[in-house]
Each structure stands twice: as structure tokens, then as C-alpha cells.
Design goal:
Blueprint: E1 3-8, E2 11-17, E3 36-41, E4 50-54, E5 63-65, E6 88-95, E7 115-116, E8 133-137, H1 141-145, E9 157-158, H2 160-167, E10 174-177, H3 189-193, E11 198-201, E12 217-223, E13 231-242
Parallel strand pairs: 6-8, 7-9, 8-10, 10-11
Antiparallel strand pairs: 1-2, 2-13, 3-4, 5-11, 5-13, 6-12, 12-13
């Protein structure tokens, strides 16, 4: 379980950790280099333990995409554009994992919807004008949690129509998904339509957000901001108030 009851001040929350520890054998988007670790100092020699890590911009689960990642006209818009206003938002989630369209695309026991379309957003449409973040669960989070090897041709994605629809809401700052990407292989339309949003990919443990709370919860998406980076690791957590 990645959820826990916590207390902040006088309020209790169910906190759901949507972040996976980053391991050296992590499976990310096909072709993405794996992290590397080297020893800088040993406690038995220098008196302290210290490692260095070689880490790609888009290797962690989850991670954010900076505008410059897939927008040639935004080369000056790196991770530094995501200030604190992007980090905490009232959110809603649409869970497609149990719909009739969810299929076992990789024949490994994990069912998910591959192409997210505007009709899938129906249940959350009435709430979009009052939310700062939208999260889409296709069911692929189960694939990532088990560190299964991804196939670039069967990754879930947002259709351009969905991306353009969500981009029209100025109040929405964060668009998250459990897939490794928001675009199908070789395409860039969703990234480009959402260039003003913080795109969060590879969210995990979304199934632990109680169904009755999916329409309204608080979402933390705090990035590691490296100036000029095309993306970066994100600490993501859902907070659901517990009222007695």
C-alpha cells in the first residue's frame, strides 16, 4: 500500500503516494538511458558516503515535461517555468481502467485504455472549470509499478482532440497521466497543445485514490527544478481530507 493517514494541524488526510522510488533498473520510454551511479566517497576512506548519479530528464516515475521538450519555438522554457503555483492544486481524476474499452494490449495481465478521447472525460467535465489539475488513469500504472518492459507501440496516450480541449481551460495548470507519454509514438500534438501546462507522465498508485474522492482531492506535483532542463523528476501525492 502507498497510502497512509496523516495529520496536518487539526485535519486528517489520506495521503496517497503517486511516486515510485527511482531504481537503477527502471524501465522507461524505450530508448531512454537508465540511471547510472558512481562512488564519489566511501565512509571507510574519506569519512563519508557520497554517490553521484547520471540521470535523464524523463526517467523517473513520475516526471514532468518542460515546454521546450517538444516545442521548437520554446527553447528558452525549461523546468524553471514551473513555479510554486504549479505544485499544489485542487484536482479531479477519471479512471478508465475498468471500462469495457480497457484491454490487455501487451498480453501480460494489465488492462488499460490506449487512446484517451474527449468522450472519456464526460464524468469530470462539469468540474473542469473549478480544478487546477486533471489526472487520467488508463490502467497503465499497474504496468509501471511492476517495472514491466514497455512497448512504444502500445503506450496509452491522449488524442490531440483531448489535449486541445484541456488546453482551453486557463485554470488547469497540471495535466497528469499514468502513461510514459501523452503522445503516440512519433507524434507531438498533445505535447504541443499542452505547452502551457505542466505535463506529468508515469504517475503510479492512482488505483489507491478512493473512487468516491476522484472528483475532488488535492494534488501535489513538486518537481526537481534544474534550470534549462527539458523535464525532471516529480514528487506527486494525493491528499484527501478525512471528515469525522
Amino acid at each position: 500500500m502507498s497510502s497512509k493517514l496523516i495529520q496536518m494541524g487539526d485535519v486528517k488526510f489520506l495521503a496517497v503516494d503517486l511516486t515510485q522510488p527511482l531504481s537503477l533498473d527502471v524501465n522507461e520510454y524505450p530508448g531512454t538511458p537508465k540511471p547510472e551511479r558512481s562512488v564519489f566517497a566511501r565512509i571507510g576512506v574519506e569519512g563519508h558516503e557520497f554517490y553521484t548519479h547520471l540521470l535523464g530528464d524523463h526517467v523517473s516515475h513520475p516526471h514532468a515535461d518542460a515546454p521546450k521538450h517538444q516545442n521548437a519555438d520554446l527553447k528558452d522554457k525549461g523546468m524553471e517555468v514551473f513555479d510554486i503555483s504549479f505544485w499544489y492544486n485542487r484536482a479531479c481524476l477519471i479512471d478508465l481502467s475498468e471500462t469495457e474499452e480497457a484491454e490487455d494490449h501487451n498480453k501480460n495481465g494489465v488492462k488499460y485504455v490506449m487512446a484517451v478521447q474527449t468522450r472519456h472525460l464526460g464524468p469530470i467535465n462539469p468540474h473542469l472549470e473549478k480544478r487546477g489539475a486533471v489526472v487520467i488513469r488508463t490502467g497503465y500504472d499497474r504496468h509501471t509499478e511492476q517495472n514491466k518492459v514497455p512497448d512504444k507501440n502500445t503506450l496509452p496516450y491522449l488524442t490531440e482532440e483531448v489535449a486541445r480541449f484541456l488546453s482551453a481551460f486557463p485554470n488547469i495548470k497540471v495535466v497528469g497521466i499514468d502513461s510514459l507519454t501523452v503522445d503516440p509514438f512519433g507524434k507531438h500534438g498533445a505535447h504541443q497543445a499542452l505547452k502551457d501546462k505542466m505535463i506529468i507522465e508515469s504517475l503510479v498508485n492512482l488505483h489507491e485514490i478512493p473512487p468516491q474522492n476522484c472528483i475532488d482531492f488535492m494534488l501535489q506535483t513538486t518537481p526537481i527544478i534544474i534550470e534549462g532542463a527539458t523535464g525532471g523528476p516529480v514528487v506527486a501525492c494525493a491528499y484527501i481530507p478525512q471528515y469525522s
